[in-house]
Design goal:
This protein has helices at about 1-5, 10-20, 35-40, 55-65, 85-95, 105-110, 110-115; strands spanning about 10, 25-30, 40, 45, 70-75, 100, 130. It contains 7 helices and 7 strands; from the N terminus they run αβαβαββαβαβααβ. It is about 35% helix and about 15% strand. It has a 5-stranded parallel β-sheet. A two-stranded antiparallel sheet has the order 3-7. The protein is an alpha/beta fold. Mean pLDDT is about 90; it is low at about 140-150.
């Protein structure tokens, strides 16, 4: 359990941080650039891990240098996709430590109700947390006022 708690972050925790305007993390989409451009999670930046490994490593090191004291959280195509895990392992082997969201893009975008609380389904919409284009996009302004659950507890999501 210690390994999972140290390296994984729940999507609900990330969504709640977005909703509350917390900027204690950087979300990194490690999918191919063209997939990122089509759609991605708001606030996410793209580091395409399909490129040369030395370029990927340099991009992550630069991102960390530009964002000291922030968690770097990656996601890829799906919970079953090994891209994020392989990227995280490669980075760790090279002294760069990241966390991984427990789901990927497909679950975030197309299986929204699977990982959000049923009491939130009517109020919290996936469209507020998805954006297209080359920019990360801002946080979901319409979701800022929603506060049904706390992410502050030691054993919370």
């Amino acid at each position: 359990y210690a390994n999972s708690a140290a390296t994984l972050v729940s999507p609900h925790n990330i969504r709640e941080r977005m909703s509350h305007g917390k900027d204690t993390y950087v979300l990194v989409d490690v999918r191919a650039e063209e997939d990122y451009l089509r759609e991605h999670i708001v606030t996410a930046v793209n580091i395409d891990t399909g490129r040369e490994l030395d370029v990927v490593l340099a991009d992550f090191k630069q991102l960390i240098a530009e964002n000291p004291n922030k968690e770097i959280i990656i996601y890829c195509y799906s919970a079953a996709c090994m891209n994020g895990r392989k990227a995280g392992n490669f980075l760790a082997e090279n002294g760069v430590f990241v966390k991984e969201m427990t789901i990927g893009w497909n679950e975030w975008r197309y299986d929204w109700e699977m990982w959000n609380y049923d009491t939130e389904w009517a109020e919290v919409k996936v469209e507020d947390f998805v954006v297209s284009g080359s920019e990360p996009g801002g946080g979901p302004e319409s979701a800022i006022s929603i506060e049904p659950f706390s992410i502050e507890g030691e054993l919370s999501c």
